[in-house]
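lol forgot to send this yesterday, sorry. struct tokens for the thing we talked abt
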């Protein structure tokens, strides 16, 4: 049995470890964070994420019961029913059904990232065993040989070097600023997009719509998203609201990390523009005013890779294809990578093509299709519907705009939203079954 090291125990790394274990690999995770292994509860970092039905299917197929993600006492995720789009003034443009409401076999989840991640990590601890999830271990460098790889780590807390780790197969799942990717390909040069995203969480005493809806409003140069991420609160008629505001900033105002605090004053004016919109009775500005901590994240863009095939090393999730945050694809594509990696491993072992065969098949399955998601997200993904509506209604009087939205919403739904959704990668299993 090949010894496989997954570098990074985030959402993609945990899903990959579970998929590889299921496929017969002897897997060990090294994760940079320093947390007691006995407490599979990661720090409450990050805010909301959406995980699409296709990825939820991968996780339930890996044996994680849906209730683990959904029950208020566990993952507390909402079963998302729809994504609705409004203009900056608050005119309804269109709505798309998602998850179960769209006929999928599993729901789309709107979740707190830390809780969703904790569910995956707990499953890794249960299935692999505590000794196979090594925390406080930051990857620093690798040496790649014909039939093995040597990985170097340091203690994250003290920076003390750890004994080198020899393995047959290494998977870099260490996120957006992947050191494994850098070790393989050099630094690259992420480009600042001219945009920042501000995010926050607040509590509201009422639900919006059916309590399971993602809402967006605005245009290309400023758009606001909000959605509920607590099933427990929804059941009590309340709304744990995860919101985000994406705006133009000529100069990177902050860092590319989930922990840079920002102030309401930085975004007050832009939020005011969306005052015609109400979510659970509150305007975007009122939601932000109820928010204790606002995080500002500068958006950088990276080109798609030409291959994920580095012999006995590969990349997965944000490390392989960092995505701009449109269309809820980050966690979804990382989990679909994990599925493809598990299938490729199983096939390669059955065919006797070994780790190199596995990496080649995985790269063939996922590199090109995820590269297309990177490109599609540069064009705002499904959120592009806000841009198109704003451009096509430019200069119209308010009443004319309202009428235009009512008349053209269906067309924009088909031409922009559905076109984007239809272009997204299919799951490996769905392709095989076809
Ligand atoms: C703290 C945090 C908060 C986030 N919050 C949000 C959010 O609110 N909304 C959202 O949409 N997305 C968020 N994301 C990103 C989102 O989780 C990913 O886009 C998506 O899940 C893809 O998963 P991934 O496994 O590729 O990357 P990630 O989920 O980012 O996981 C990467 C993992 O690798 C670890 N790691 C990094 N460097 C090293 C190293 N040198 N050695 C070992 N381990 C390393 C990290 O600690 C992390 O656990 C967040 C990511 C992080 C790390």
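and heres what i got for the seq, position by position
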């Amino acid at each position: 049995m090949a010894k496989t090291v997954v570098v990074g125990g985030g959402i993609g790394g945990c899903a990959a470890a579970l998929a590889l274990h299921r496929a017969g690999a002897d897997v060990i995770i090294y994760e940079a964070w320093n947390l007691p292994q006995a407490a599979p509860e990661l720090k409450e970092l990050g805010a909301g994420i959406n995980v699409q039905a296709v990825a939820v299917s991968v996780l339930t197929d890996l044996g994680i019961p849906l209730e683990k993600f959904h029950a208020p006492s566990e993952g507390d995720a909402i079963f998302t029913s729809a994504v609705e789009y409004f203009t900056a003034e608050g005119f309804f443009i269109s709505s798309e059904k998602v998850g179960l409401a769209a006929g999928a076999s599993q729901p789309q989840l709107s979740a707190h990232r830390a809780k969703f991640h904790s569910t995956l990590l707990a499953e890794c601890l249960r299935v692999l065993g505590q000794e196979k999830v090594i925390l406080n271990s930051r990857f620093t460098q690798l040496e790649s040989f014909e039939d093995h790889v040597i990985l170097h780590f340091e203690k994250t807390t003290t920076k003390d070097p750890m004994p080198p780790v020899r393995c047959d197969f290494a998977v870099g799942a260490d996120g957006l600023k992947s050191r494994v990717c850098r070790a393989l390909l050099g630094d690259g040069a992420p480009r600042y997009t001219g945009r920042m995203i501000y995010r926050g969480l607040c509590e509201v005493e009422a639900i919006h719509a059916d309590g399971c809806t993602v809402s967006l409003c605005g245009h290309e140069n400023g758009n606001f998203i909000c959605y509920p991420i607590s099933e427990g609160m929804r059941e009590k008629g309340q709304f744990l609201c995860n919101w985000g505001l994406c705006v133009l900033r000529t100069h990177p105002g902050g860092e590319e990390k989930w922990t840079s605090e920002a102030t309401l004053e930085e975004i007050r004016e832009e939020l005011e523009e969306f005052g015609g919109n109400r979510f659970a009775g509150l305007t975007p500005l009122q939601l932000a005013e109820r928010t204790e901590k606002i995080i500002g994240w500068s958006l950088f863009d990276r080109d798609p890779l030409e291959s994920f095939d580095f012999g006995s090393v590969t990349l997965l999730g944000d490390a392989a294809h960092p995505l701009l945050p449109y269309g809820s694809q980050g966690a979804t594509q990382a989990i679909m990578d994990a599925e493809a990696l598990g299938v490729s491993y199983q096939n390669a072992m059955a065919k006797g093509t070994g780790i190199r065969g596995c990496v080649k098949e995985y790269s063939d399955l996922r590199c090109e299709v995820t590269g297309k998601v990177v490109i599609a997200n540069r064009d705002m993904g499904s959120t592009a519907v806000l841009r198109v509506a704003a451009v096509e209604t430019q200069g119209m009087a308010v009443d004319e705009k309202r009428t235009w939205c009512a008349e053209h919403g269906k067309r924009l739904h088909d031409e922009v939203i559905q076109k984007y959704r239809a272009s997204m990668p299919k799951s490996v299993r769905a392709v095989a079954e076809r």
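Residues 398-423 form the longest helix (26 residues). anyway ping me if u want another try
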